[in-house]
User: Fold these one by one.
Assistant:
Number 1:
Amino acid sequence: MQNRRKAIEELKNSIDKDKLPLHVAIIMDGNGRWTKQRFMPRSAGHKEGMERVKEIVESASNIGVKYLSLYAFSTENWKRPKEEIDGLMKLLVYYLRVELNNLNKNNIKINTLGDISKLPVGPRREVEKAVELTKNNNKMVLNIALNYGGRNEILKGIKSILNDIEKGKINIEDLDESVFSDYLYTSGQPDPDLLIRPSGELRLSNFLLYQIAYTEFWFSNIYWPDFREEHFLKAIIDYQKRERRFGGI
Ligand code: IPE
Ligand code: IPE
Ligand code: MG
């Protein structure tokens, strides 16, 4: 334990504060496989995964990340057994009940990505309460992606734009990348600098498709319930060694 704290301190010290990623996105994956290794029910993996959410949110905010986007439930995750979906929704409520005051005290603003109107009413109310309570906070924005799908988000944006064009609110000629961004759930936010996906899968699974055009990817075989602060810091240190060219030379 003592050694672990020391290792974490050393990692923190090797982070270049002037080159911090402003926005980090994480696909929290591998909860199921983590439990399979341990002959436990899948729900136990989601529960342990929630502990990692607390740990990584705290770490991100402490080192000065300004936006943290966590993929918690995708538009495709409705395909899972009802029991598992109910369990995930319960965990969301539990997380917010336990952590909300703490998040608020730490000046963290909670924001959602995705169509939360489709969530069961209990979890939806809990989320809305959290968003309302923390709306004026400004240390870090915590984007929780719930019933989120990148394609769905882009289509929703296109529909709203067509609506606004029809109403004369905007002209087609004025529609550019920056205007389009404002029709996405991440409106007003910078694109992710770094995307972390643990669990060994090398795919985006419909996360932030539009925003991720120039994001740096960091993949790892670690399952999310095993993804600790030291791995998060390591991902940031690796990110800082990359040369981002954005198409230039
Ligand atoms: C991520 O873990 C949690 C959610 C998608 C909600 P998984 O449940 O996908 O875990 P694996 O991929 O089956 O290991
Ligand atoms: C991505 O994980 C969604 C979340 C982490 C919420 P999945 O486990 O659903 O992705 P696939 O099915 O492996 O692509
Ligand atoms: Mg998965």
Number 2:
Amino acid sequence: MKIVILTGAGISAESGVPTFRGPDGLWEGHRVEDVATPEAFRRDPVLVQRFYNMRRRFLLSGAVHPNPAHLELARLALQPGIEVTLVTQNIDDLHERAGSAGVLHMHGELLKARCEGCGETSGIREDLEPATICPECGEAGRLRPDVVWFGEMPYFLEEIGRAVEAADWFVSIGTSGLVYPAAGYVSVARDAGVRTLEINLDESATSGIFDDSLRGPAGEQVPRWVAGIIAAR
Ligand code: OAD
């Protein structure tokens, strides 16, 4: 059985990582246009680096751990006869810490930097500053967080599209369904005759398209769903 799972910020909420779209419409106190666009980075690289530095420090602070939803998805992938493709919009590393391998980070990763000079990516755990030197080419001032900003092309799109069309199940967990192309995968799945399930605390913008839904916190609903799949086999 082939299962494609798409996760969003909601799966990491119970681990203490804030979601993007809070009730005040702000993203940790910043307007999203001030920190998550290439234009913002060109205009104010210090602000943008500081914003991601804060998030990286928090992720590595020891306060953040995978929750049962991350752990159960890793367990599901180890079951014989089940092939999981795990796609995440999240830039944290909680799926990896839970034991998932080969995660497709379509919006990039906070713990990687990319050099706009040589194009190489490198692992990063320290703060990035405008003067940080690229470990690959030695040039200063060209490193940026390896995250996908608004207006940029997400990663792995072809691979994800193929996996969705070939799946038996498409399961979306903790995403608002507002940001494309990720929000469009449920329609791709439906058009390909793939069974679709949404797990979310609340209604999302695409809830009406899914065949089935489980409402509630991912930390409770995902373990319940995974247990059901395993028990049924
Ligand atoms: P959002 O912040 O837009 O949505 C979070 C979703 O998670 C909402 O639908 C909530 O109802 C749900 N949620 C919150 N807590 C939950 C919980 N404990 N259990 C289950 N669901 C819960 O986050 P995303 O949809 O991931 O992109 O946002 C998509 C993209 O927008 C992000 O990857 C980022 C952002 O701009 C880029 O930076 C390119």
